[in-house]
Amino acid sequence: MRSDVTYTHVLARGVHTRVGQKRSWVEMCRASYDDGMSSELVVYVDIDDTLVRSAGTKRIPMLAVLDRVRELAASGAELYAWSSGGSDYALHSARELGVEALFRAFLPKPHVMIDDQPASDWKRLIYVHPNEVAGRTAADLRASYQRPG
Q1: Residue 56's domain spans which residues?
Q2: What's the pTM value of the predicted model, to 2 decimals?
Q3: What is the 3-state secondary structure (H, E, C) of 37-80?
Q4: At 103, which CATH number?
Q5: Is residue 21 part of a domain?
Q6: Nearest partner of 145 among 81, 82, 46, 72, judged by Cα
Q7: 3-class secondary structure, 35
Q8: pLDDT by residue (tens digit) across 10-61?
């Protein structure tokens, strides 16, 4: 792990974020808007059966997805790794796969979402299955979510 990066828990649920100092969740969100990241493509990437497959005790990296994640990061996308296994699991898996530095934070998948709209109604959300991601460029993904609904 790079020595200049500090991981801190910013929520009781154990969200890890790459920051040089401790920040609250509100400060982290505000920093995202202040540094211009909010206008970029924001991508949440699952771990199991997306970045890595498990067969017994063997873990098999999904190379096409990892390549696309690297391309998304290089294009300026804001990447978050999340997993139903929790934030620690997401962090350790990304580290194991050598892509830890590409992600802004490592989160648990939510059990409850409180929002005024169900995710199915979000106009700027697209779902891409891991088997389909290799055929989608960063530019293609940006164009897909920017289309008027």
Answers
A1: 40-146
A2: 0.74
A3: HHHCCEEEEECECCCEEEECCEEEECHHHHHHHHHHHHCCCEEE
A4: 3.40.50.1000
A5: no
A6: 72
A7: coil
A8: 343 445 555 443 445 445 545 554 454 444 789 999 999 999 999 999 999 9
